[in-house]
Amino acid sequence: MPLWLREHSWRQTLTAVYLSLPLRGARATPANIFCSEQYLKVSIPPFLFEAVLYAPIDDTNSTAKIGNGNIFFTLYKKEPAMWDSLTLANADKEKLQYLRENAVLKAQEKAKEEMEAKKITKQEHKKYALEATMKVEEAERKRIEDLKEKERQKVTKELELWKSQQKDGDKYKSIQNKRELHQEIEPLKERKNEKMNTTQIPNEGTSKTRLKSTKGSCSIFSQNLKEEQLPAPRAAATIKVNFTPRVFPTALRESRVAEEEEWLHKQAEARRIINSDLSELEDLKEEEKNPDWLKDKGNKMFAMGDYLGAVNAYNLAVRLNNKLPLLYLNRAACHLKLRNLHKAIEDSSKALELLTPPVPDNEDARVKAHVRRGTAFCQLELYTEGLQDYEAALKIDPRNKNIEKDAEKIRHLIQGTMQSS
């Protein structure tokens, strides 16, 4: 039976009520206090304080401070007025029960609304983070494209400059060849004229033949001279080009090297395990060797009530990848259904070990792990250890009324066992 705390002192103003409650040596936490608009409860086993307030209060802004062996409440009134008493007088059991249940229902609805609002805020934050990441990636992609375009323009300009230099060089070589040819032909013409002046004029037939032979020799000389001026052909060579080996098809500048290396490491580890230890997986398909696929299969079997098949699926997934905490957490739930309590405790402890560091994203998983391990302890009649797990779950999620009720039941069981002993 709980011991009722009757000793308390209070004072009031038009807008607030100040209540002091002695603890009698008991240690209180915020989880031991429950307050709504018209209902106040302090449960510190074996002590209990319960009050149905005279008028509604603003439970959102009201505060409670624990210190020096007392709990000091500052309760702000919804409507400024002086109360005749702290609690509602002349209230029968049915009315008190109605007010108590109504307060609990309102608190549950409020907690549900806050949870929904928290989820919406979390989704908005994720959406904003995704949009920001997309913007950063788009800006990076645009920067890379601009660099490519600048490099392309630079190479195009260099190529045009090289072509113009080649044309100028060819023109200069042709002019130089013509000049050298002209310099070679001029002495020949002068020698020919000198010979024609010194010799007599022959007959018409011989002159024609000499002229023809001179013209022919001149044309042959000029042709040989042109052939000598031609440049030598270029030497052939082989250019070897090396490329950086890439496992993924994306370019190195657009890839995430750390994530790709981690993925490759995990795949290599999974293949090593399959080749060395899991000879029974040789006949399975490729997707059936995936731990995530096995986890989903185990979840479906658990939903259908095939707990032993779910355990087998989780066992195989754990052998493929023993770093996923959800595999141990789900297998612990199956062991609870199959009454394998020691295995449930081991899997829950392993899941909690992997769920580090504690962050908001793994709060739900940590709460489930504590509750499942606490349930297994209680079914083994280790109520003290079970209560520790439930209190740890309440620290993570203090507004979960179901966990609070179960913890309260375990406290009563511990108190009953102590009294019977």
Task: Provide structural commentary.
By secondary structure, the protein is an alpha+beta fold. Among the domains are: about 5-90, Immunoglobulin-like (Sandwich), CATH 2.60.40; about 90-185; about 320-415, Serine Threonine Protein Phosphatase 5, Tetratricopeptide repeat (Alpha Horseshoe). It is built from 10 helices and 8 strands. The protein has helices at about 95-200, 205-230, 255-275, 290-305, 305-320, 325-335, 340-355, 365-380, 385-395, 400-420; strands at about 5, 10, 15-20, 35, 40-45, 45-50, 65, 70-75. The chain has a 4-stranded mixed sheet, covered by helices on one side. Strands 2-3-8-7 form a 4-stranded antiparallel sheet, with no helix packed on it. A hairpin with a 3-residue loop joins β4 and β5. The model is unreliable at about 200-220 (pLDDT under 50).
Strand content: 5-15%
Question: What is the CATH top level name of the domain at 322-415?
Answer: Mainly Alpha
By secondary-structure content and strand pairing, the structural class works out as alpha+beta
CATH homologous superfamily classification of the domain at 322-415:
Tetratricopeptide repeat domain
CATH architecture designation of the domain at 322-415:
Alpha Horseshoe
Q: Please outline the major beta sheet.
A: 4 strands, mixed
**Count of β-strands:** 8
**Strand line-up in the sheet with most strands:** 1-6-5-4
Tally of alpha and pi helices: 10
State the order of secondary-structure elements, H for helix, E for strand.
Answer: EEEEEEEEHHHHHHHHHH
Organism: Certhia brachydactyla (short-toed tree-creeper)
GO molecular function, one term: nuclear estrogen receptor binding
Pfam families: CS (PF04969)
Keywords: Cell projection, Coiled coil, Cytoplasm, Neurogenesis, Nucleus, Repeat, TPR repeat
